[in-house]
Amino acid sequence: xxxxxxxxxxxxxxxxxxxxxxxxxxxxxxxxxxxxxxxxxxxxxxxxxxxxxxxxxxxxxxxxxxxxxxxxxxxxxxxxxxxxxxxxxxxxxxxxxxxxxxxxxxxxxxxxxxxxxxxxxxxxxxxxxxxxxxxxxxxxxxxxxxxxxxxxxxxxxxxxxxxxxxxxxxxxxxxxxxx
Length: 179
Prior knowledge:
By secondary structure, the protein is α+β, with helices and mostly antiparallel strands. The protein has helices at residues 21-47, 51-66, 120-153, 163-167, and strands at 9-11, 14-16, 75-81, 98-108, 111-116. Strands 3-4-5 form a three-stranded antiparallel beta sheet.
């Protein structure tokens, strides 16, 4: 008689090492059934949003976009440099150099622009504007995701041809005369 191993091994989610193929197949079917149940439950939850709920979320996001303050892309970096004077402390081998000098770096039309931030107030202002830009990016990403869902859920409206489409000429199937 074929006996089942009392403790089957599961590798990558599948039953292995079971001596009885029927028992192994049953365990694998049970695993597949569980996976399928989790998938369908998760998918139903994702699709449960109605068109009106999605439109309401889109309106909420649009309202949040209008509430953003001043924003700009970029990052604040600290630059440590050496001045090049041979008698300066920064010329010593173990000296870290002058700085850090805080700068705002961003790109315009593919070119990197760097602005020096002379005061702590200008650093705080730049960091606040960069933070607002990050919020803008996240809200824009969410806005697009919701719009994609709306486009998928919105039914196709079959409309007749417009006056302009009716007037549009169809190309002739005859050959034009040679010149």
